[in-house]
Amino acid sequence: MGIRNERLRWQLVSGVLRALHLERLTARYSHRAVMAGFSFLNGTVSIALIAFVALITQQAFIFPSLGATAFILFHVPMAAPASPRNTLCGHLIGALMGYASLHLFGIADAPSAMATGVDPARVGAAAVSLGATGFAMVWLRVPHPPAGATALIVSLGLMPGLDQLPVLMAGVTMLLLQAFTLNRLAGLPYPFWSSRPDDVPVATPNPSP
């Protein structure tokens, strides 16, 4: 599985470089340097685009767990947690469980834990939100690890309003659109919705160390 993921990552990077007519970089620099440089530029650009939309609209399109999602989408794009289904459903579950836990412990209108510190109600909300998110993702078979962070972001009071849910999901959707575009540009059969066992390229380059 590790070798397969490594080859898929290399196909993503080399495919994008070919599409941009920059394939000479793979001959000039080491495999590790190219992969690391791609990760830096791709992560920077992906989050910067969403952050720019947030700046223009003054809405919370950008939030911490998107960083982890971006890494998964571009580092292991063909893994089930990177699929649009798992990504969208996972973050939606995390957010809803976070909102539910705030109301369960009566702190929906309380200041965030970053402003006032952690009290017993906040501890309970954070614990229940994460536990419930994990339960729901496993039960529904839509694991997406960064969604656990989304649950905590909400339950800690950083995005406490249910009216912020559409904005939160819009941020996830924008990142998915970037992932779909880039992965398809590289020749990877990134899914429209859910990953399948046969969604694996037949021919993949064998990267040299």
Low-confidence segments, given as residue ranges, are: 198-209
Number of strands: 0
The percentage helix is 55-70%
- The total number of structural domains is 1
- SS summary, helix count: 9
How many angstroms separate the termini?
18 Å
Class from secondary-structure proportions: mainly alpha
Strand content: under 5%
In short:
With 209 residues, the chain is mostly helical.
Labels describing this entry:
209 residues; single chain; 66% helix; TM_HPP; transmembrane helix; membrane; HPP
Would you mind describing this structure in some detail?
It comes from Marinobacter halodurans. It is built from nine helices and no strands. The longest helix has 27 residues. It has one domain. Helix 4 runs antiparallel to helix 8. By secondary structure, it is mainly alpha-helical.
Write the layout of secondary structure elements.
Elements: H1 2-19, H2 24-28, H3 31-57, H4 65-75, H5 84-104, H6 113-116, H7 120-140, H8 146-155, H9 165-185
